[in-house]
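Before our next group meeting I need something from you. Please put the record directly below this note.
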Amino acid sequence: MVVFYPLTGDRQERPATITFPIIEVTIYWKGLQMSITLSGGIPTWFIDRFKNTLYHVQQQKDSKFGKAVTVESVSNAEDKAFDMLDKFELTAKTSRNPQTPIIDAVTQRRWVFTDPFHNAVLWDEDDDLSVLLDPKSNYVRNFVQAVNRKKDDIILASFDGAVSSGRRAAGTITWASQLGNTKYTGVDSSGDVTGRTIAHDTSAGNAAAGDTNLTTEKIELVKEYFANNDVDEDMPIWGAISPRQATNLFGQEEYVNIDFNDAKPLTNGKIIRDWMGINWIVSTKILLGTANDVDLTTNVFRCPFWVSSGIILGVQDAISVRIDTRTDLSMSQQIYVHMNMGAFRQDEDLVCFVECQDT
């Protein structure tokens, strides 16, 4: 398993670029062995092909959460500002030729900050270099998995993470300050949602306080939450659950009974990815916490539900590859992989959590 580590400090340690004047490389291609002498180091075509192989496989096997958020390019910078407009309202026209009303457009600026992550492996001079070009090789697979795991970590942290705001990112918007850790029970007299967390013991709507795991009734409340926030019905809703909540779904009659669901999930034992209008993601990164419910008394899984435009993934470097010859290590090839990205919550109305006990 390959794990990416963050780059820290003002001056980052990068692998030394050591160019050896003449390199003898043995390449195995479709069962044929070819020995070629190269001047000036690792050939560009080899580096480009390895990078393209990594990138292609990564696109085929994207991270679980990467496809469920809005991706924005952060070019030649480590941060980027996004402005969110407040809602517009129209005023009544009560006479002929009145003065034209002007909307004072209120914007809220939020920032995404990217962080670099990297790692490297060594390839011995006597190893078969063609293995690196094989999309099915352990090297390609492990690097792709490392990139995807780190991307998922970055996105997951953004659901309830603090967001930098203001003209110069001087302000901070916390999840708690936006009623994130307050129980959702519906709307108040002003039509605003009461909170953004559906508690494990909620009795709102059709839910029963004794049903503390993931239930059909809690999913109904998720749909209600987004409806109360006037979220466009055509915008896909995503939900991330642990394997335990996936098991809970198989205990719901509405999920397995063909009177409610013609997909027959028990036939193949797989999660129905779009059940009840939710695009489901099953991830082992959704963990059971300790006294982490809204009352800080009960161990729960906090399962996020969101609309893709509510989370922004800023990408400065999706993946870059560098291969250098290490003359200090018997001419081994150092394969260095780097990524740089960050994520933030664009709109609290497009995110909520569902608490589930481990039952």
About this structure: Residues 178-312+347-356 form one domain. Helices lie at 44-60, 130-133, 138-158, 216-228, 243-249, 253-256, 265-268. Confidence is low (pLDDT under 50) at residues 11-40.
